[in-house]
Structure formats: C-alpha cells, structure tokens
Amino acid sequence: MRDGMRRAIATAWTVLLIILAQGLAGAQVTTRVKESVLENGLKVLLLEEHKAPVVTVHVWYRVGARNEQPGTTGLSHFLEHMMFKGTSKLGAGQFSKAVQKNGGRDNAFTSDDYTGYFETFASDRFELALGLEADRMRGLLLDPKEVESEKKVVMEERRLRTEDDPVSALREAMGAVAFGVHPYRQPVIGWMSDIAALTREDLVHHYNTYYVPNNAVLIVVGDFKSDEVLPKVQRLLGSIARSPEPPRVRAVEPEQRGERRLVLKKEAELPFVFMGYHVPDLKHPDNFALEVLAYILSGGKSARIYKSLVYEKQLALFAGGGYDRESIDPNLFPLYASVMPGKTPEEVERALTAEIERVKSEPVPDRELEKAKNQIEAGFLLGQDSVFNLARQLAEYEIVAGWRVWEAYLPGIRAVKAEDLQRVAKAYLTPDNRTVAVLVPTKAQK
Amino acid sequence: MLVLLLLPILAAAAPLAEREVLDSGLTLLVASRRALPIVTVKVTVQAGSLWEPEGQAGLANLTALLLTRGTATRTAAQIDEAVDFMGASLSSTADRDSSEVDLTLLKKDLPAGLELLADVLIHPAFEEGEIARKVRELRAALRKRQEDPGEVASEAFNKLVFGSHPYGRPLEGTDASLAAITRDEIVKFYRDHYTPERAFVTVVGDVELKEITEQLRTLLGPWPKGKGTVEKAGEPKPLQEKIVVKKIDRSVAQANILLGHQGIRRDNPDFYALTVMNYILGGGGFSSRLVERIREEKGWAYDVHSYFYPGLERGAFQVGLQTKNETAGPAVEEVLRELRRIRDQGVTDQELADTKAYLTGSFSLRLDTNRKLAGLISTVEYYKLGLDYADRYPRLIEAVTREEALRVARTYLTPDRYVLVVVADQAKAALPY
User: Fold this and answer.
1) Rounded-to-integer distance, Cα A429 and Cα A277, Å
2) Cβ under 8 Å to A: B residues 238-257
C-alpha cells in the first residue's frame, strides 16, 4: 500500500522537478561544478569561488561506521586518527606541520557514512594539499608503536565526548535501540571495549579495502582555475592504482512494529528526552516534506516545539528536532528536550507527542509553511558564504546520493504542500515507529 | 633589518572597513562584499560584565538576552516570528568586555531587518513576565552546566584566578544573584550603557556604503545619548598565594585539568610575541609542544592546549587538558615541565620560522566569510587595533625574535605561581598534593 503510493508520488514529483529546475538553473551553485572521473576511479569535483583568496581541498572516503562489524566498531574513526601518524615519506605528525607551516588548516571527521579530510589554504598554497593527500591515500605506515599510542588518545576522546557527557551517552543508547539490524546502531567512535581490542591488522585491512581512489572523492572549492588544477590532480592522484571495489553494505533495517523505550541512569542534573522515528532518506520523494516538517517543528524560536515547550509551557530548558536527511540508508527523525527543574520527562514526552499529533490533525497554515520554506531558502544562500561549507555539502551529497541530487533540493522544498506534511507525519511519525529514550539523573555518589 | 627591507614590497591592502562617526556619537563600519546577496550586521556595545555593579552578577548577560524579548510595540513572539519569516537570525549576547546584537539576513530583507534591529536596541520593553521567564531559564542552565566537568573546572579556575573581579565569575551570574536582580536594575543598566556613544555598528555584505549609512542614520538617529561616564571594574587583584590547588570530586571517567594564572590586557604591546610563544607552547594544535608531548608521545589526552585570553583587563593564561583519572598527576607534571622548558630555553629558530609562517599565512582564513570578517572588524574597533590591522598584523608577527619569545615566556609564564583545578574521581586520580 505505502509502496504503491510512493511510486505515484515519485512520478508527479519528477515532472514538477523538471519544470522548476529549468527556471532556477542559473541560481544554483551546482551548475558551476565541474566533474571528472580519473581512470583510476577517483571522482573530482571542482568549484571556483573567487570571492575570497582561499581554497579548500577535501578528500572524502566512502567508509564510516556503516561499514563496520560488531566487535570492531570505531575502526573508521581510529583509521582517521592514524592518517596523521606517518607515511613512508612523512613522519608521524608531519602532515599537519607541513600544512601549518604553509599557513593552512587541516582536520578530519568520521560519520556513519564517510570519513572526510580537508586542508584550507590561502589560494597560492593549496596545491601542497594534493600531494599530501595523494601520499597518504596509499602510503600509510600504521607503525605498531603509533597504533598503540593513538589508541589511548581515541579512548580519551570517547571519555570526553561520551562517557562524561550524559546527553551524548543517551543519544548513543537511543541509536543502539532504534536500530536492531543496521550498523547505524553503532556509535561512530566505537564501543569502548571494541576500541581497546582493535589491532593493527584490523586497521591495515580497513585501509587496504576502503582507501582506494575508486572509493574516494576529491573536492576543491575556492579561488583557483580549474583548467590549471585538473592536470595537477591527474599527475598527483591519477597514478594511484585502482583497487577492487569495496564490499557493499547489505544490512536493511526491518520495519519497526511497536514502540521501543529505554532508560539511561547516569549522574546528571536534569532529565533529558530523545524520540527517534524511522524515516526515509533523501533518495525518497517524501524527503522534502520531512525536511519542511522539521522546520515547522524546530526551525527557530517561532517554531512549534520551541514556542510550546520552551516559551509557553516552560517544560524544557531547550528543545527541538531535526531530520537526518543526508544519509546513505534510512535514518531517524529525532526530537529532543532538556527537562526543566520541577517538570517530568512524562510531561515533556506528552508535549512533544502533542505537537506531532497536531501536525497530523490540522493542516499547517499557509503562512507557516511559507515561513519554513523561507528559512530553508535563506539558509541555502547563507550557507554558500563559506567555501568550507560548500565543499562539505558537495562531498556529503556525493557520498550519500550523488552530488547532482543537491540540485533537486530547493525545487523539491518549494513544491511541498500542507497536505504533504500531514501525510508524512501520519505515515512516519507514529508511536509504533519510534524509540523513546529518557535520561534519569542519579544522585551524585560523591 | 630583514623585516624593514621587506616592508616596501608588501603593498598596503585596503582598510578592513569604511569608518564614519555619526552626530549621535555612533560609529559605523562598513565592508562591502557583493558576491552573495546576504548581509551581516553586528552592533557592539560597551556593556559587558566588566560594568556590572557590585553584587549584581549576571546583569549584563540578562540585559542583553532580554533585548530581543519584547519592545514597546512588539512582543517576544512577534519578534521571533518576524525573524524566522525572513529566514534570518537575530541574537543578543553579552561577554565580559562587551555585548553584541547580531543580525544575518538576505539583502532583500535588509530594510525590515534593520528596522527590527533598531527597535530592539532603542525600545526594549523589559517586561516583568519575560524577565521572570529568562531568569528561570538561566538558573536551570546554570544547574545543567554542572553536568559538564569542563564547565565545573572552568568556573572554579576563574574564581581562584580573579577572585571577586567580574572576570572571576560566570557571565550568567549565580543562582542567588540572578534571583535577586530587579527590573529597575536592568532598566538602569540598559540606560547607562546602551547608548550611541558607547556602541558601534559593523556591516559586512551586499551593501552600498552611502545607502546603508543613510539607512542606519535614519533608523538609529532617535537613539538617545547617554548621561555621562559609567563605572567599570578596574584591574583584577594579583594572586596572593604561590600555588593554589583545587580538587573537585566527581564520578567521572576523565580528569578535567586547568592550570594557569593571570595574563595580559589586549593593549599590551607584548601581545604579538606572546601569540608566537604560545603557539609553540600549546596554541598551535599539532605543531605545539604540549600536544607533541602529552598527546602524541604519551597518548594521555585527546585535547591539550594553552591560551592567553586578553581583554580590556588582564585575562587568564591557561593550559587545559582531559585525561583518564589515573594519569592526571603525571600529566600535570608534564605541563609544568613544558612551561619551565620554554622559560629556560626559549624557542628554536625552526619553531619560530614555522610559527610566523602559519600566523601570517593563515590570516586570510580569518576573514573568508562575512561573519568572520564582521567579527574581526568588531574586535579591531573595540580594542583600537586600527583598520589597517590586516597590513600590520603580519609585520608585527614577523618582527618577533627568539629573544623576545624568551623574554615574554619568562615575564608572563609563572610555573611557580599558579592555580591548578582538577575535577576528577579523586580516589583514582590520587594526586600527590
């Protein structure tokens, strides 16, 4: 039943998208992206932006927590750390030093779906990044001594980010309950016992499997000339040999049939509530309505959740929600609230649920719908002020669905109607399809 | 010598912004950036916690937050609705030295946005119900912050380093001070400090100088002038004891450690030499000695850093790190060893050259978005650094010598006089002091 409906909607959408996209083509930043694929399979996206004399170089690999197995979680993130710990040409720690002494900044991040590396430079220096990234794409040493030392650093990072942060620990616990089968149940940083047990062999295998040109994308955004850069990319990165395609992730999360609940007891001051609903990702036509719905519920202080829970009822210190839209596989639509002193998680949960039910029972007024769309359009434009942000967006879209999917975003948003919001709320934001996680503060033991 | 020879080669760049002082005393700073149809407006006011009267901790922050919570003609909900409908952002915040109102929006909404901005600046209502609501929120936020061991450490550290000086307390105040603040006190603080002579407006984005100047002149013209000078807190008192150790016991997986003392004011000419020296010590991320020693060699911490936080008054110097309870003691020893080493031996030629290359070469990354540029212009104006700062900064950094780096390390780092705060599971940390 639901599938049939989805297909019908998809057809109508396609027609609409084509009409809208034509009127908009000139305004879209994506029309200026130059794509090439080198012979070894490396995809290259170049976007010239001459408004400031800086260039950002990103290399993202199509690997993250999603590609990990129980028992070796945290492997992608650990490998990200090791990418700074030396190659056959460059000693441990020398990567960042080389970037910095050229006035550049570099860092990296790991998510469920990807591992991304970047360097940002004044525009006369950025070519250095191409050589450095080429070197560590296949030349990593993974020195056993460095592996053991860095493992301790990663464990400290987990203590900092998760163990001693009750809200972050709750978010992690919710993911592990909301997903029963799909690896999105695993934390990106990995479970502590898994990190402790990871070996050099695990890292070598992961590196050789996923850090290959045909599993990577290079994005350069900023003040440069594409026709000058492309030959250099070809020379520096084109000579790396193509490798076998990495294995596909086959896990599919089955439909949830019945609400799941969990309680995390931890030393804290205030209770906290998370609710996560399973929703489709951006490859599904309902993604636009879900995105607009996220703004109706949580786009600013006039949005429904803040206005009701924080401002009017004062049940929550802060509250909101979002939509994990840019995701390879279907993910969650999370809502959250920090419970005010004197209020209970039950009251907060009821108030959050009431806002969901209101969307289902009453059509969102036209002006409110227009407001959400204005916010999305303005955010889209404001986000282009930063070359880093442009590169990040391009890379993320490329990894989760192909960068051209970004073009459909604004037209798709503009076409959302009030009845679409009601329909997706009824289809996905149901009690049977959600996980409710509650942080119950324990008394300080000291 | 070398530096002087290089000077003529460095072409003078344009000033960071066009500056004009209006009749009311209000200063305007405008930087046209027309690549995208967006605009950022930042109003900076001399209304930080440094100006809070004795016993009214949290007043500056509360006043700033209430600006957008209703005016003579608009309720808080109406302001929120108007901002969100434009897809804009409008926020007002206080810091220790200044307060700010920030507006970012699309160019097409600029007239409506500026009108709203002027309204919250000139006609805030400070309605009793909104005050009570915000106070409740801030008191709850103070309580929630106790969940974060880093915040707990920071609060204890500032209190010990600065005593009763405003730099020594949380911007939000305390539960008791917040509960005691009255509407009259808020209105008085607003009237004394939110005046055109004590404020300036920075505009960055798709604007034309004459046009935006006229718009702001019209909208902010009715902003009444102030009634004279106002009292600001003076210098913080120097530390009395040699070494102050504060251990806070929590059931945490990691010890949160802060070690430091008072540093410098922003107008101290040694700022640039200190910037260079501190980059080498602990400010330069993976290029710093503290990261090299404590993270890379020992594997004891994910984050270890040092910084000077100079303000209108002497701000702190601090080293911060988090490590599992068991390595807290040894990590502190390593920090002290590095402080002593840089005081004894200074920095190497290579370190000095690499640091200068980073600090000068990365300057353009500090102004590559409208928001960053508005932030830099605001800092430059507030601390009187001069609108030619983008030209001068590289020269000031290039001029730092090894001798100077050594001198400032010896002058401003005192590893025999400091405050040490450790928030940890103290039984496991088993510190030897």
Assistant:
1) 6
2) 249-254
CB contact under 8 A, B33 and A51: yes
Tens-place pLDDT, residues A283-302: 999 999 999 999 999 999 99
- Residues A179, A111, single domain; the answer is yes
- The CA distance from A435 to A334, in Å, is 9
Number of domains present in the structure of chain B: 2
Q: How far apart are CA B192 and CA B181, in angstroms?
A: 16
Interchain contact, A378 vs B361, CB within 8 Å:
no
* pLDDT, position B9: 41
**Residue A28, in any domain of the structure:** no
- φ/ψ of residue B200, rounded to 5: -145, 155
pTM of the model: 0.94
Using DSSP, state whether B288 is helix, strand or coil: coil
Q: How many CB atoms lie within 10 A of CB B10?
A: 11
What's the rounded Cα separation, in Å, for the pair A422 and A361? 7
CATH number of the structural domain spanning residue B330: 3.30.830.10
Q: Does the active-site annotation cover A80?
A: yes
pLDDT above 50 (res B10): no
Closest residue in chain B to residue A310, using alpha carbons only = B137
Residue B30 shares a structural domain with residue B141: yes
What is the tens place of the pLDDT at every residue in B209-259?
999 999 999 999 999 999 877 889 999 999 888 999 999 999 999 999 999
B83:A163 CB<8 A: no
CATH of the domain at A140: 3.30.830.10
Please say whether the beta carbons of B317 and B306 come within 8 A: yes
Instruction: Give the other-Cβ count within 10 Å of B323's Cβ.
Output: 31
- Between the CA of residue B33 and those of A164, A276, B213, what are the distances in Å? 43, 41, 15
Q: What is the pLDDT of residue A41?
A: 98
A–B: how many Cβ contacts below 8 A? 189
**Mapping DSSP to helix (H, G, I), strand (E, B) and coil, where does residue A319 land?**
strand
- How many residues can be counted in chain A? 446
Range of the domain at A425: 260-442
Cβ–Cβ below 8 Å for A382 and B104: yes
Query: Is the confidence at residue A11, as pLDDT, over 50?
Result: no
Q: Is A123 exposed, middle or buried (0-12, 13-18, 19+ CB in 10 A)?
A: middle
State the residue range of the domain holding B81.
15-220
Q: What domain count does chain A have? A: 2
Alpha helix (H) residue ranges in A213-286:
226-237
- The vertex-A11 CA angle with A8 and A16, nearest 5°, equals 130
Predicted pLDDT at B54: 86
pLDDT greater at residue A250 or residue A445: A250
Give contacts of B 319-348 with A, CB under 8 A: 322-324
Kindly tell me the burial class for residue B8, based on how many C-beta atoms sit within 10 Å of its own C-beta (0-12, 13-18, 19 or more): exposed
C-alpha dist (Å) from residue B286 to A54, A109, A126, A250, B295: 22, 16, 19, 38, 9
Residue entry with tokens 């000033």: B15
Return d(Cα A378, Cα B36) in angstroms, integer: 11
**What ipTM was estimated for this complex?**
0.94
DSSP state of B372: H
Q: How many CB atoms lie within 10 A of CB B268?
A: 16
Contacts of residue A93 in chain B, CB cutoff 8 Å?
Answer: 286, 292, 296
**pLDDT tens-digit map of A208-263:** 999 999 999 999 999 999 999 999 999 999 999 999 999 999 999 999 999 999 99
The answer to whether B132 faces chain A, any CB pair under 8 Å, is no
Contacts of B234 (CB under 8 A, 6+ apart): B313
